Amino acid sequence: xxxxxxxxxxxxxxxxxxxxVVPSSSLLPKDDATIxxxxxxxxxxxxxxxxxxxxxxxxxxxxxxxxxxxxxxxDLEQVGRTSKHHTFFEMxxxxxxxxxxxxxxxxxxxxxxxxxLKLDKSRLYVTVYTDDDEAADIWHLQEGVPRERIFRFxxxxxxxxxxxxxx
Length: 167
Fold this sequence. Notes:
By secondary structure, the protein is an alpha/beta fold.
């Protein structure tokens, strides 16, 4: 499967789940002096998450062009040393602005991976935050993921937060 097919499939899937498909914002953020380049899919929604702005939709999906060359999410030192790190990539994201939470987010993720992309469930593992029993139970009870394939990690490895001055 090619990256274009994955991108289009992702956006189509979330469009069918009543998400507004939002175009990628510019790599050069406007109205945000806290970052040099757009480095995450949530950047264009930052003011919504901070409660400073409202949009006409409560669900969004995007394929955000990202560049990571400095700051908290700096992958530059790893480029060329691993097969996983790049400075430019597209981040696929689905967002809920007070509309749904863990139960639906987990359901959407599992459905996209296993039904849309047809990934083999027996080869998938999931992670949850170290003390997030609710998410672990949803993965196990709702989606059928065996407990031995649910891993718990803490803030360093399994939690995203904005940096000191921005995302």
